[in-house]
Amino acid sequence: MKKLKIAIVLSIVILFETNLLACTGFCISTDTTVFFGNNEDYSNPDTKIWYEPGSEGKYGRVSFGFDDFFSQGGMNEKGLCFDGFATKLKKVIKSPDKLDEGLGEIINIVMSECATVEDVLQLLSKYNLTDLE
After folding, report:
1. Mean confidence (pLDDT) of the chain
2. How far apart are CA 111 and CA 81, in angstroms?
3. Predicted confidence (pLDDT) per residue in 9-51, tens digit
4. CA distance 29 to 35
């Protein structure tokens, strides 16, 4: 049944193919393994991969993006990975009790300090996320 659903989705995508700048992501898992992948659809052909080694209390990571070196996606040495996708607008209320950082810096903090999704949620609860609006 699962294979049939995947075949139907792929058939629809192929039948209604258009030229969009829309990223795609996927995640497939078994009991012991998780595969995560994505692509970055954008008009800039100058894609980059860069590595940031771990240091005292910081995880090493690989980032993917363009020639401005703003991380569009990546993974750290603990296997925590991310990518950004466009969605409908969701209003974010700024709190005076939370820290302000730009999106790029928040991504760097998350990927260098967090090992799990639970770690990410705990860390993000301390920040205003207006850049994610």
Report:
1. 85
2. 8
3. 767 666 665 566 667 788 888 998 888 888 777 778 898 999 9
4. 6
Strands 71-76 and 47-52 turn out to be unpaired
> 114, 81 in Cβ contact below 8 A?
no
Segment 114-129 shows an average pLDDT of 94
Do residues 106 and 131 make contact, with C-beta atoms less than 8 angstroms apart?
yes
Q: What DSSP character marks residue 88?
A: S
Integer Cα distance of 49 and 97 in angstroms: 36
CA 30 to chain centre: 21
Radius of gyration of the chain (CA): 17
| Tokens encoding 46 | 């100058």
| Structure tokens that stand for 113 in this block | 């300090």
How far apart are alpha carbons 95 and 81 in whole angstroms? 27
Residue 44 is predicted with a pLDDT of 83
Query: Which letter, b or e, does each residue of 43-67 get, where b requires 16 or more Cβ atoms within 10 Å of its Cβ?
Result: eeeeeeeeebeeeeebbebbbbbbe
